[in-house]
């Protein structure tokens, strides 16, 4: 993104707290050239707060939502209320993937000894075909240099991008862990619990593992290409576990990690 760009109302943004006042905090937008934005104390938490320092500190990185934008005044107001944990994690994961892809692109530029002009042409061409550098590396990782067919990039850079992708560009993997508390009160309680947990099976694109923590607690972990897929897999699996537990008269509680 260019530093002159502005976010849109309702958009999730990454913000860094720079100065805290009794009535709110001034932040800079990491993805928009460090443009200044403001979050009022009333938008920090869903309840009334007396001391803003209990929630924010200088240098803190936040996922916020743009709720008011006055472009002609360069006014950007943010809110932290209503931003779900899944939105926060997905946004942070997307940021991490973007930073990693940018580093890989820089490595390819050095290998090919590309000029600034060749770099700019390549960035524009990759964005036009794939939507961004990250998506381009994913395609290169899967298809090799064939992914660049029809893309006008200097040959040396195209080869370097393919080589870097084959060695380093792997699909991002997101990991989520939830804790289950499963209790059976029947005479065959142990067997019932084994039956309930033996049905745990995730979708093909997700790796699921189950660990015994000590009665009645179990840990279930999902690893997928991104946070949304991992969270969806856990939701589907725990719904199935809950249904089976109900049939067998067992009690299930789920603690969703906020890490």
Question: Which features would summarize this protein structure in a list?
Answer:
five-stranded mixed barrel, single chain, DNA polymerase, domain 1, OB fold (Dihydrolipoamide Acetyltransferase, E2P), Alpha-Beta Plaits, four-stranded antiparallel beta sheet
Secondary structure blueprint with pairings:
Elements: E1 12-21, E2 24-29, E3 35-40, E4 61-70, E5 75-79, H1 85-112, H2 116-130, H3 133-143, H4 155-168, E6 174-184, H5 189-198, E7 207-214, E8 217-224, H6 227-247, E9 250-256
Parallel strand pairs: 3-5
Antiparallel strand pairs: 1-2, 1-4, 2-3, 4-5, 6-8, 6-9, 7-8
Helix pairs in contact: 1-4, 2-3, 3-4
How would you characterize the overall build of this protein?
The protein folds into 3 domains: 12-82, OB fold (Dihydrolipoamide Acetyltransferase, E2P); 86-168, DNA polymerase, domain 1; 174-256, EIF_2_alpha (Alpha-Beta Plaits, 2-Layer Sandwich). 38% of the residues lie in helices and 27% in strands. It contains 6 helices and 9 strands; from the N terminus they run βββββααααβαββαβ. The chain has a 5-stranded mixed beta barrel with strand order 1-2-3-5-4. Helix 1 (85-112) packs across helix 4, helix 2 (116-130) crosses helix 3 (133-143) and helix 3 (133-143) packs across helix 4 (155-168). It is flat. The mean pLDDT is 86.
CATH topology title of the largest domain: DNA polymerase, domain 1
Ends distance: 28 Å
Q: What general outline do the C-alpha atoms trace?
A: flat
Q: Can you count the beta strands?
A: 9
**What class would the helix/strand composition place it in?**
alpha+beta
Q: Tell me the strand order in the biggest sheet.
A: 1-2-3-5-4
Strand content: 25-35%
For the report, how would you describe the main beta sheet?
A: 5 strands, mixed, barrel
Q: What average pLDDT do the residues reach?
A: 86
Reading off the top of the CATH hierarchy, the class of the largest domain is best stated as Mainly Alpha
N-to-C series of helices and strands: EEEEEHHHHEHEEHE
């Amino acid at each position: 993104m260019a530093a002159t760009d502005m976010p849109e109302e309702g958009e999730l943004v990454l913000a860094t707290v720079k100065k805290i006042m009794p009535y709110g905090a001034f932040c800079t937008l990491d993805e928009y050239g460090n443009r200044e934005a403001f979050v009022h104390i009333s938008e920090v938490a869903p309840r009334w707060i007396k001391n803003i320092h209990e929630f924010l500190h200088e240098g803190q990185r936040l996922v916020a939502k743009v709720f008011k934008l006055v472009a002609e005044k360069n006014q950007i107001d943010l809110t932290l209320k209503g931003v779900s944990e899944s939105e926060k994690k997905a946004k942070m994961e997307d940021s991490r993937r973007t930073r990693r892809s940018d580093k890989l692109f820089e490595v390819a530029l050095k290998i090919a000894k590309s000029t600034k002009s060749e770099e700019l042409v390549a960035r524009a061409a990759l964005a036009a075909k794939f939507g961004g550098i990250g998506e381009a590396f994913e395609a290169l990782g899967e298809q090799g240099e064939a992914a660049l067919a029809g893309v006008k990039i200097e040959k040396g850079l195209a080869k370097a991008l393919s080589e870097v992708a084959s060695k380093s560009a792997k699909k991002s993997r997101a990991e989520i862990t939830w804790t289950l508390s499963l209790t059976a009160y029947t005479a065959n309680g142990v067997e019932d619990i084994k039956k309930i947990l033996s049905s745990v099976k995730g979708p093909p694109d997700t790796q699921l593992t189950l660990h015994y923590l000590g009665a009645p607690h179990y840990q279930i972990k999902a690893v997928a290409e991104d946070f949304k897929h991992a969270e969806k897999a856990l939701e589907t699996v725990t719904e199935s576990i809950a249904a089976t537990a109900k049939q067998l008269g067992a009690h299930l509680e789920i603690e969703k990690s906020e890490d």
